[in-house]
Amino acid sequence: MGFEIGKEKKRVVVIGGGIAGSLICYTLQFHADVVLIDPKEYFEIPWASLRAMVEPSFAKRSVINHSEYLTNARVITSTAINITDGEVLTEDGQQISYDYLVVSTGHKDSFPKTRAERLRQYQQESERIESAHSILIVGGGPTGVELASEIAVDFPGKKVKLVHRGSRLLEFVGHKASKKALDWLTKMGVEVILDQSVDLSSAEDGIYQTSRGETIAADCHFVCIGSPIGSSWLKETFLKDNLDSQGKLVVDENLRVKGHNNIFVIGDITNIPEMKQGYLAQQHALVAAKNLKLLMDGGKESKMATYKPGVAMAIISLGRREAVAQFPCFTMIGCLPGSIKSKDLFVGKTRKQLGLKPGPA
Ligand SMILES: *[C@@H]1O[C@H](CO)[C@@H](O)[C@H](O)[C@H]1NC(C)=O
Ligand SMILES: *[C@@H]1O[C@H](CO)[C@@H](O)[C@H](O)[C@H]1NC(C)=O
């Protein structure tokens, strides 16, 4: 920073290194003194994780050390536990001051700390799938449907059962897309059980009880239920009054917290009324980065960019070639939507956005 005589860079602290947090750090690292606080040392492309469970080497490209793309930022491997007007407090006892703060703690997941441990986890999960004859998947949202599809395509001999508590799969998209996904899975030999849940605590010797008293035998199970919003820690902070009833942070059209003109919020933790999708979280990051650059350069607040909620669009991949897609006016299934997402799952594209080569590290 020695080149810029007389002009101190502003400190931007980003809490949470998911899809939104990693991109905003990357975008701002040469414009500000960027500090990323994340409990893990890496960023992971979330929608690639189901492929990595059947093909663990896939994770070598989709799990990326923060240090690889953050060549000019500081990474603190810890969890933020409190924030005040000008400081963030971390679990390991550090107090980090900020000029601007970005909150992007998305969902509360528990991932291992290092990339090597995460890759090992994928290896173990794929071995679990390979050695099982029958597999139970709990949860019929996008994660459960994509995992069932990956297994059905890569291991056609395995018995896969998917139990979902709701009356249809993929409730976040329309009925037509749900039906198409259900028909596709059924055709591929996956048994889908709707309107039931599984009591995992009482499972014994591979026998599981459903809420209607049915029994399911399976060699292993995977829980694919969405994790809660990562905001419980904010209830103890001065942002507690900015949380809505679902625990999301209420943002204005410039992606700032009301009443705090140096705090931005991006990603799934925002209360923006739209589907929670990774590509939208990336858009949040780009809008907030633009606004931060403007403010740091002394621009007018009135010139800030606004974020408009994204249209209802989603692609749920069904194995390596096919997908079901919902666009604003229609849904479709098969190889055409599959050709957009399913082969590479946007991994090369996402790596490129972080300035990395599409290939493995
Ligand atoms: C990622 O970081 C770890 C340190 O935790 C290091 O040992 C490893 O070599 C790095 N891997 C890559 C691909 O950069
Ligand atoms: C967080 O900081 C606030 C001061 O801003 C303080 O009142 C509160 O007790 C702290 N909470 C925790 C859990 O340390």
TrEMBL record:
Gene3D superfamilies, A to Z: 3.50.50.100
UniProt keyword annotations, A-Z: FAD, Flavoprotein, Membrane, Oxidoreductase, Transmembrane, Transmembrane helix
Keyword Oxidoreductase belongs to the record: yes
TM segment ranges: 12-32
Positions of the FAD/NAD(P)-binding domain: 11-284
Source organism, top-level taxon: Eukaryota
Pfam families listed in its UniProt record: Pyr_redox_2 (PF07992)
Family the UniProt entry places it in: Belongs to the FAD-dependent oxidoreductase family.
Entry protein name: FAD/NAD(P)-binding domain
Species the sequence originates in: Dillenia turbinata
Lineage: Eukaryota, Viridiplantae, Streptophyta, Embryophyta, Tracheophyta
